[in-house]
Amino acid sequence: MADAPVPPGRTPAVEAAIENELRLLDPEVRASPVLFGALLHPEFTEFGASGARWDRESIVKVLTAKPGPGDRPTTTSRMRGVQLADDVVHLTFDTDTNGRLVHRSSLWQRSGGGWLLWFHQGTPFTP
Predict the structure, then answer these.
(1) Contact 47, 121 (CB under 8 A)
(2) In the beta sheet, which residues pair with residue 120?
(3) Which of 18, 19, 46, 91 could pair with 120 as two cysteines, CB 3.0-4.6 Å apart?
């Protein structure tokens, strides 16, 4: 089976990072500490939109908790990626979670056979 064509400007590494970033937002993955944690680098750090600093253990615990009633899935827009090195990809994108808009920046690192989220930052914004 042939690989799908890669859009212009997107390397296979950028495509893999985008795919994993979107998996992190998938409600099924967010409901599972095992699936969610499998996409995070052991040294993961996040500067959250709330201003909090998170490590791998704390973010897995918080983000895989049961969603609140009426919570809608997070939507993304303006997803862009740049391969900074053979094993590093930088993604930027915006999210909308129940009307809360956040600019996001993620660094993905190739580790073993896959891409793991090494760093993430979210900054709230208004349109």
Answers:
(1) yes
(2) 46, 106
(3) 46
Q: How far apart are CA 116 and CA 110, in angstroms?
A: 6
User: What global pTM score does this model have?
Assistant: 0.86
> Domains in the chain, ordered, with CATH?
12-64+75-124 (3.10.450.50)
Strand partners, 88: 85, 109
Q: How far apart are CA 78 and CA 97, in angstroms?
A: 15
Helix residue ranges per DSSP H, the chain? 12-25, 27-30, 33-37, 56-63
Q: What is the spatial distance between Cα 31 and Cα 124, in angstroms, rounded to a whole number?
A: 24
What would the two tokens of residue 121 be? 């930052």
Quick check: 37 and 59 in contact, CB under 8 A? no
- Looking at this protein, which amino acid is placed at residue 92? T
Which residue reads 């095992």 in tokens? Answer: 34
Instruction: Confirm if 44 and 119 have CB atoms less than 8 A apart.
Output: yes
Using one digit for the tens of pLDDT, what is the confidence trace for 64-115? 886 655 567 788 999 999 999 999 999 999 999 888 899 999 999 999 879 9
Rounded to the nearest angstrom, the gap between the alpha carbon of residue 21 and the centroid of all alpha carbons in its chain is 3
